[in-house]
Amino acid sequence: MRIFTLLLMAIFLFVINANAQQKVKAPKVRLGKIDKKWLEMKVYPKDSNATAVILYDKGETSIDTDDLSVIHTRHVRIKIINKSGYKWSNVQIPYYISGIRGESVRYIRGYTYNLVNGKVVKQKFDPKTVLTQKLNKYWKQKTMAFSKVKEGTVIEYTYTIKSKDFRNLKSWYFQKSIPVVWSEYKVEVPNFVKYNVANRGYLINYSIRRITEMKASGMNNQMPVKTTHYHWAVKDLPALKEESHITTLKDYTPGIEFRLNQVNIPNGASTNYYTNWATANNQLLTHENFGAHLKFNTFLDEVANNIRSKYSDTTQRVVAAYQHIQSYMTWNKKKRIFVYEPLDVVYRKKTGNATAINFLLVSLLRKLGIKTDPVVLSTRSHGKIKPSSAPMINRLNYMIAQIKLNSNTTILADATDPLLDLGTLPYRCLNGLGRSVNNQGGSWIFLGNTPSSTQVGIEVILAEDGTSKTVASITQKGFAAYDERKKLHQQKPQKYAKKFWKGSEYTVNAHKFQNSKNIYKPFTAKYILNLKEDASIKKAGNMFYITPVLTPELHENPFKAKTRQLPIDFGYTFKQNYLFTIKIPKGYEVESMPKQKVVSLPKRAGRLIYIAQKQKGKVQVIIRFAINKPVFLASEYLGLRELYNQMIDKVQEQIVLKKI
Questions:
Q1: Cα angle value 491/496/498 (rounded, 5°)
Q2: CA distances for 261 relative to 169, 208, 258, 367, 391, angstroms
């Protein structure tokens, strides 16, 4: 009787919650049956450029209380509009295969629908045609290749994935690179298994409900167990387009993620996982593949003693330790938060993942008595971490070192790249916030960086007959210097010089580079250049018409689109200063020159200063361009785009010389 009463209450709660919270009506979709209107649709009304449209995408995940296995089913329906959308008829289903956490894919079914002579023709998908491919030792992939696909076809498929790993429920992403008419996700979990639920991206026009009910447990049919039902539904989502200057599309894709928080089996043991960031800090410190690596690293004693004997100054010791690990170790390009072999083995092999290399740096600095902590983070391509959200360790894939030189000076360091100076993080790490891991519970660390700067000086000596000689000098610091050093190290100097000026109005006659290997000094390049015949310095009769000829990037706006959906994330601030000087030929004087201009974005987030001035026998054009904050909201896009437009317009204005 008690169970019956509880079930009635559950049904009542379900109805109340469903009616009170659901904002959008779910479409009625049955496998094998389709409305003819979708086959008749030749263009998607809400996006005439769409090559395909996801008509329906529904996922359901539940935990079997008998054995705690996870069952995930998915039902998808896609309209192919034109040939460019054919790729959506090749469906990939990746699944994990390693150990007891391995997954299995079952019950693959599907249909192809076409309109032939006004009638719906349905073809059943043959499961025997499914191709199984091993991607690596952890993952396999099943591929469904639908046949008889043409413009106007609708494909439909469903499958089930079963997993023994209840620690990670399937994530769900609503928005895709093509429009989505309907996307829905339902999750049912017993309340003795608790998860951190995290939203990703931006949910637009969505309905959500969370329902709690009672049901008999498979573990003990006499004991009713509370279950929580999560339900998300989104309709009419536009295509999510890749745009320049972003971290990763996952940061902006509306989605749901789960991470195990606690397991409290009825009449059994209770286990806590990463419940908050302080708990995550402590668990990382004691983890055998993380914090345990900070102990007993006696193999570094000799290196530490050598550094200590050579240098007495703390800063010198830090630089020496950094340079030793930086030059001795080679990064294997793997980004992982954990290290699965002892550090002495990694050191002996002279190669390892980024976390292993930076653990060596942390350990060596600690042996020198310098306070140094690990800082865990997620790289730009892996997605941002939100401090307000519950910790999800799978969101972390990288570690750097936080070095405290003194009470006022803290340095963030990454020893994976021989071309990065101490205190400059690689661009992949510039992703908002990281989290220090230490005995004080850890704290959030801003992954900022020193500004990047470029100074360009170009001097043109112009003869009366129109011939000229051009000398250019370029000095770069920060990321600008790093980028050019990297390019120079990957090719011969002659090829690098030619590529640098490609797209400009110059050809390279001679070049010289300074500090290409000394990463602690500005990188300097000097060139003797020749103007091309069609360059923007032209003589016509008694007049010279001169457009200041600068580097190629100043002649093209990187933001061409009229609108933008996503924020602009440069990663770091930068300044670009240009000085263009032209020596006036004998017997000529200035007829006209551009006017001065100053353009600033609100709070000087971006700024342009343009000055044209006369000096003794010379005309100078000075351009100072600065981006003073690393991230701009989408609402600030038009102002940023216009700032670039103003700069490009100004550099195209002419200086006019006339014969006296």
A1: 140
A2: 12, 22, 9, 36, 9
At 239-298, the pLDDT tens digits run 998 889 999 988 889 898 888 888 887 666 677 777 788 888 998 999 999 999 998 899
Q: Is the pLDDT of residue 224 over 80?
A: no
- Torsion angle in degrees (nearest 10) through CA of 336, 340, 344, 347: -40
Instruction: Provide the 3-class DSSP secondary structure of residue 81.
Output: coil
Q: Which residue has the tokens 């400059």?
A: 424
Least confident of 53-62, 194-203, 372-381: 194-203
Whether residue 317 contacts residue 308, with contact meaning beta carbons closer than 8 Å, is answered with yes
What's phi and psi for 629, nearest 5 deg?
A: -145, 145
Instruction: Give which of 496, 501, 623 is closest to 551, Cα–Cα.
Output: 501
502: which 2 tokens?
């490609």
What radius of gyration do the chain's Cα atoms show? Answer: 31
- Span 500-559, pLDDT tens digits: 998 888 899 999 999 999 999 999 999 999 888 777 888 888 999 998 877 777 778 999
Note the pLDDT of residue 194: 86
pLDDT mean over 320-347: 96
Q: Which strands form 52-63's sheet, in the order they lie side by side?
A: 119-124, 103-116, 154-163, 70-80, 52-63, 180-190, 224-237, 206-216
Q: Which of 72-81, 220-229, 291-300, 449-458 has the lowest mean pLDDT?
A: 220-229
| pLDDT for res 211 | 63
Cα 21 to Cα 68: distance, rounded to the nearest angstrom: 30
How far is Cα 223 from Cα 217, in angstroms, rounded to an integer? 6
Which is higher by pLDDT, 5 or 565? Answer: 565
Beta bridge partners of 458: 472, 580
Name the residue with tokens 């195209």.
Answer: 652
Distance CA 291, CA 358 (A): 13
Backbone dihedral angles phi then psi of residue 641, each to the nearest 5 degrees = -60, -40
d(CA 181, CA 45): 11
Q: Are 371 and 352 in contact (CB under 8 A)?
A: no
- Enter the pTM of the model: 0.83
Q: How many CB atoms lie within 10 A of CB 115?
A: 15
How many Cα atoms within 13 Å fall on the side-chain side of residue 62? 9
Residue 625 belongs to what H/E stretch?
Answer: strand 618-627
Q: Exposed/middle/buried for 223, CB within 10 Å: 0-12, 13-18, 19+?
A: exposed
CA distance 458 to 597: 21
Where does residue 313 fall: left (phi above 0), alpha (psi -120 to 50 degrees), or beta otherwise?
beta
CB-based contacts of 140, cutoff 8 Å, min separation 6: 94, 95, 97, 132, 133, 134
